[in-house]
């Protein structure tokens, strides 16, 4: 297909799963845009649809398959000529997808998405391209991404893959071993995003606090990286996700305490409180270590917001284990908490463990834990009433002339928002807001 012919095709990218997939979709969007195709948001307007899938847990796999089938129907009712499936599901189940969904015209795995324009061309020519090889991709060769207009916050991958081999996790199968990017590569991408109007960067990896150890002689380089990114003009907030407790160094705590651009927000996925469960999960750290670390961070970084994620119903988790987990949550009082029920994943070690917990019990435990957290979140949010906080204004609600934004204590899409009255400026600005009301997860206030 010629460049001119390609420009007539309209391409929509449907992204499912985690924020790491969003980054991959942005990179594909940049390549598609450079090639001359027209990017559209609505799949019903597209002649080519790319579904970037998740294959992490059963619910995500089911959502991915359903979305692929939904998009396949557009071949009958819409303009769709080519349906391409990308991401983690293809990396793990390429044969199943090809055999069971004949409407799929091409597939690409997690290590080959840089070939997306060639895949589109081949699929439009009637071929059925399969680009699923080694999942290893370094992100060194490409730093440009195309973010949607009106976006002021973006995720930034600092590493890919994982070496921790947690027994419940299939990430190494889909994404390969742990691979840090160089500081120079990350800073260059940050500059490119800032030029597109991004003011907040959320740093992500499977294990962020281990950043740099594989390429900088075993040194934990996350503090250096944060300080370098803080120098990028236009970037106002830096947010850290997936910080393992085992590598949360004193130097890193100092950066949180003293660098004004680093959000006072720590996302530390602990997964459980009980040592024998953590051992079965092959998670680093112990309950006592986690409590001590949380206390240390809070003492040195006042007002810090702490987020964690927990898994209930892991094989061998007893009622007594769960009760102690509930007490742990009550004692620590996390600002933000995500709860997941254990999911059996193909080819992971946890599937072979004895004493699996039934689904009904898992769901019951998850609901109990979230109810406990609901009260804690409301209590923690209440401390902001009467204070002035910086808020990133992200959208106009329209009703009652309300704008909506976030504080540094809330990550995009997963945490709470601030409903702001009295604002007259542009979107994408950080403004002072006096908080007048607090709710379980959200806040409301007036521009100062």
From TrEMBL:
<comment type="similarity">
    <text>Belongs to the methylthiotransferase family. RimO subfamily.</text>
</comment>
<dbReference type="GO" id="GO:0103039">
    <property type="term" value="F:protein methylthiotransferase activity"/>
</dbReference>
<dbReference type="InterPro" id="IPR058240">
    <property type="entry name" value="rSAM_sf"/>
</dbReference>
<keyword id="KW-0479">Metal-binding</keyword>
<dbReference type="GO" id="GO:0005840">
    <property type="term" value="C:ribosome"/>
</dbReference>
<dbReference type="InterPro" id="IPR020612">
    <property type="entry name" value="Methylthiotransferase_CS"/>
</dbReference>
<dbReference type="Pfam" id="PF04055">
    <property type="entry name" value="Radical_SAM"/>
</dbReference>
<feature type="domain" description="TRAM">
    <location>
        <begin position="382"/>
        <end position="448"/>
    </location>
</feature>
<feature type="binding site">
    <location>
        <position position="169"/>
    </location>
    <ligand>
        <name>[4Fe-4S] cluster 2</name>
    </ligand>
</feature>
<feature type="domain" description="Radical SAM core">
    <location>
        <begin position="148"/>
        <end position="380"/>
    </location>
</feature>
<dbReference type="Pfam" id="PF18693">
    <property type="entry name" value="TRAM_2"/>
</dbReference>
<dbReference type="InterPro" id="IPR013848">
    <property type="entry name" value="Methylthiotransferase_N"/>
</dbReference>
<feature type="binding site">
    <location>
        <position position="18"/>
    </location>
    <ligand>
        <name>[4Fe-4S] cluster 1</name>
    </ligand>
</feature>
<feature type="binding site">
    <location>
        <position position="162"/>
    </location>
    <ligand>
        <name>[4Fe-4S] cluster 2</name>
    </ligand>
</feature>
<dbReference type="InterPro" id="IPR038135">
    <property type="entry name" value="Methylthiotransferase_N_sf"/>
</dbReference>
<keyword id="KW-0963">Cytoplasm</keyword>
<keyword id="KW-0808">Transferase</keyword>
<dbReference type="InterPro" id="IPR005839">
    <property type="entry name" value="Methylthiotransferase"/>
</dbReference>
<comment type="function">
    <text>Catalyzes the methylthiolation of an aspartic acid residue of ribosomal protein uS12.</text>
</comment>
<dbReference type="InterPro" id="IPR005840">
    <property type="entry name" value="Ribosomal_uS12_MeSTrfase_RimO"/>
</dbReference>
<keyword id="KW-0411">Iron-sulfur</keyword>
<dbReference type="InterPro" id="IPR012340">
    <property type="entry name" value="NA-bd_OB-fold"/>
</dbReference>
<keyword id="KW-0689">Ribosomal protein</keyword>
<feature type="binding site">
    <location>
        <position position="166"/>
    </location>
    <ligand>
        <name>[4Fe-4S] cluster 2</name>
    </ligand>
</feature>
<dbReference type="InterPro" id="IPR006638">
    <property type="entry name" value="Elp3/MiaA/NifB-like_rSAM"/>
</dbReference>
<keyword id="KW-0408">Iron</keyword>
<keyword id="KW-0004">4Fe-4S</keyword>
<feature type="binding site">
    <location>
        <position position="88"/>
    </location>
    <ligand>
        <name>[4Fe-4S] cluster 1</name>
    </ligand>
</feature>
<keyword id="KW-0949">S-adenosyl-L-methionine</keyword>
<dbReference type="InterPro" id="IPR007197">
    <property type="entry name" value="rSAM"/>
</dbReference>
<protein>
    <recommendedName>
        <fullName>Ribosomal protein uS12 methylthiotransferase RimO</fullName>
        <ecNumber>2.8.4.4</ecNumber>
    </recommendedName>
</protein>
<dbReference type="Pfam" id="PF00919">
    <property type="entry name" value="UPF0004"/>
</dbReference>
<feature type="domain" description="MTTase N-terminal">
    <location>
        <begin position="9"/>
        <end position="125"/>
    </location>
</feature>
<dbReference type="InterPro" id="IPR002792">
    <property type="entry name" value="TRAM_dom"/>
</dbReference>
<feature type="binding site">
    <location>
        <position position="54"/>
    </location>
    <ligand>
        <name>[4Fe-4S] cluster 1</name>
    </ligand>
</feature>
<dbReference type="InterPro" id="IPR023404">
    <property type="entry name" value="rSAM_horseshoe"/>
</dbReference>
<keyword id="KW-0687">Ribonucleoprotein</keyword>
């Amino acid at each position: 297909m010629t460049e001119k012919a390609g420009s007539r095709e309209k391409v929509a990218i449907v992204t499912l799963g985690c924020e790491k997939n969003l980054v991959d979709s942005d990179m594909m969007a940049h390549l598609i845009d450079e090639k001359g195709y027209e990017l559209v948001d609505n799949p019903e307007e597209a002649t080519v649809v790319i579904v970037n899938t998740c294959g992490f847990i059963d619910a995500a796999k089911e959502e991915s398959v359903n979305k692929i089938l939904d998009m396949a129907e557009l071949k009958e009712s819409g303009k769709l000529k080519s349906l391409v499936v990308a991401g983690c599901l293809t990396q793990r189940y390429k044969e199943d997808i090809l055999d069971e969904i004949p409407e799929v015209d091409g597939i690409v795995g997690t290590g080959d998405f840089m070939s997306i324009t060639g895949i589109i061309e081949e699929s439009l020519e009637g071929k059925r391209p399969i680009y699923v090889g080694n999942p290893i991709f370094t992100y060194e060769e490409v730093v440009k991404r195309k973010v949607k207009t009106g976006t002021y916050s973006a995720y930034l991958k600092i590493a890919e893959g994982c070496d921790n081999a947690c027994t419940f996790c299939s990430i190494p199968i889909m994404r390969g071993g742990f691979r840090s990017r160089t500081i120079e590569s990350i800073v260059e991408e940050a500059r490119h995003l800032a030029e597109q109007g991004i003011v907040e960067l959320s740093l992500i990896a499977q294990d962020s606090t281990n950043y740099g150890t594989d390429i900088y002689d075993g040194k934990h380089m996350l503090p250096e990286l944060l300080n370098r990114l803080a120098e990028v003009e236009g970037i106002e907030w830096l947010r850290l996700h997936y910080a393992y407790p085992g590598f949360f160094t004193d130097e890193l705590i100092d950066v949180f305490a003293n660098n004004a651009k680093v959000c006072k927000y720590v996302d530390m996925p602990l997964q459980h409180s009980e040592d024998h469960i953590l051992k079965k999960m092959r998670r680093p750290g112990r309950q006592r270590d986690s409590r001590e670390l949380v206390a240390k961070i809070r003492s040195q970084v006042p007002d810090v917001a702490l987020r964690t994620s927990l898994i209930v119903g892991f094989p061998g988790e007893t009622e007594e284990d769960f009760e102690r987990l509930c007490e742990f949550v009550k004692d620590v009082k996390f600002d933000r908490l995500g709860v997941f029920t254990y999911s059996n994943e193909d080819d992971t070690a946890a599937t072979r463990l004895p004493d699996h917990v039934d689904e009904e019990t898992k769901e019951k435990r998850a609901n109990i834990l979230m109810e406990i957290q609901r009260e804690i979140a409301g209590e923690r949010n209440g401390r902001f009433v009467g204070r002035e906080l910086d808020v990133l204004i992200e959208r106009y609600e329209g009703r009652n002339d309300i704008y909506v934004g976030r504080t540094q204590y809330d990550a995009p899409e997963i945490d709470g928002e601030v409903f702001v009255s009295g604002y007259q400026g542009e979107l994408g600005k950080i403004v002072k807001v006096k908080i007048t009301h607090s709710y379980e997860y959200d806040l409301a206030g007036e521009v100062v």
